[in-house]
Amino acid sequence: MKLRDILFGCASVLACLSLNVSTVAADECARGDLDTRFCDVDGDMIADTPTDPSKLLDPDTLIFAYTPVEDPAVYKEAWSDFIDHLEKKTGKDVVFFPVQSNAAEIEAMRSGRLHIAGFNTGSNPLAVNCAGFSPFTIMAREDGSFGYEMEIITYPGSGVEKVEDLKGKALAFTSPTSNSGFKAPSAILKADFDLVEGRDFEATFSGKHDNSILGVANKDYIAASIANSVKFRMISRDVIKADQVKTIYTSQTFPTTGFGVAYNLKPELQASIKDAFFSFEWAGSSLEKEFSKSKESQFLPMTYKKFWDVIRKIDTANNVSYACK
């Protein structure tokens, strides 16, 4: 059965570490797949903001993180104008936190050390269910379109001309929580090409999309599964040349990074943060300079329940659990 147009997935998801906080009894509220620390009375599939004022956060300094792709120093500069705008809208200092992995970013929000973040496609469900992430926007192009495709790439002269040629070779993934860097390609290779990791090909993990792309361009990896939005930005910055890599597979379009806040920030603060995203002027900004390379030019309102439906189906099809351990 082909999954290309409907469901993709992986066998496992990184589990959250346990948090030493008081928990809500299992029978006290509706929560769906959310951890027992959270409630979802309104049914939007994200943690409700606490009604008890003593459980709300109003930090003097807000910590912001962008999903760990490419050079963190590049993105600190890229987000600088937005962070200035965010400070004006919230009246608080904002610090850019350069996370090194999806797991580290999830743990930072789960433990209360991260307040505003962009989580990549594959790690969004785990961040929502285990860390109390409340996403509300994604980047979009001028016409309102959004998203990226998973590509399997190799280098010219590698001997890999089509997906079937991966048999007996190694394929670089990014991390187990990544949709395009692990989940989707694992399921596609199994369902559409009868290629199973460990049986038909060897898997290795690079940690990030740019590591995989650079690894293929420099012939350290014979092939890799990556998000093509990252590849396009790296080509635009002359990090690699377009002719150093070639694509042997392209998937359907997936939603891109989801941006949001920790569920337990004060409602007034959450409102100010949302206003900062939707009132930000992209024209001439450091954000436009970086993300115009992938044609993004605005923040588009979205809901996790609707926009991440296909990603949850990906996980369900592969028996992925969002349970925090």
Unreliable parts: 1-26
Tell me which CATH architecture of the largest domain applies here.
3-Layer(aba) Sandwich
CATH class of the largest domain: Alpha Beta
Envelope shape:
globular
Write out the strand line-up for the largest beta sheet, numbering strands in chain order. 2-1-3-10-4-11
What is the CATH fold-level name of the largest domain?
D-Maltodextrin-Binding Protein, domain 2
Oligomeric status: single chain
Strand content: 15-25%
Family: Belongs to the phosphate/phosphite/phosphonate binding protein family.
Protein name: Phosphate/phosphite/phosphonate ABC transporter substrate-binding protein
Organism: Kiloniella antarctica
Keywords: Signal
Would you mind describing this structure in some detail?
This protein is α/β, with parallel strands linked by helices. The chain has 2 domains: 53-145 and 256-317, 3-Layer(aba) Sandwich (D-Maltodextrin-Binding Protein, domain 2); 148-254, D-Maltodextrin-Binding Protein, domain 2 (3-Layer(aba) Sandwich). The chain is 31% helix and 19% strand. It is built from 11 helices and 11 strands. The strands form 3 sheets. It has a 6-stranded mixed beta sheet, with helices on both faces. It has a 3-stranded antiparallel beta sheet with strand order 8-5-9. It has a two-stranded parallel sheet with strand order 6-7. Helix 5 (179-193) links the parallel strand 6 and strand 7. The relative contact order is 0.22. Mean pLDDT is 89; it is low at 1-26. Keywords: Signal. Residues 1-26 form the signal peptide. InterPro entries: PhnD. Belongs to the phosphate/phosphite/phosphonate binding protein family. This is Phosphate/phosphite/phosphonate ABC transporter substrate-binding protein.
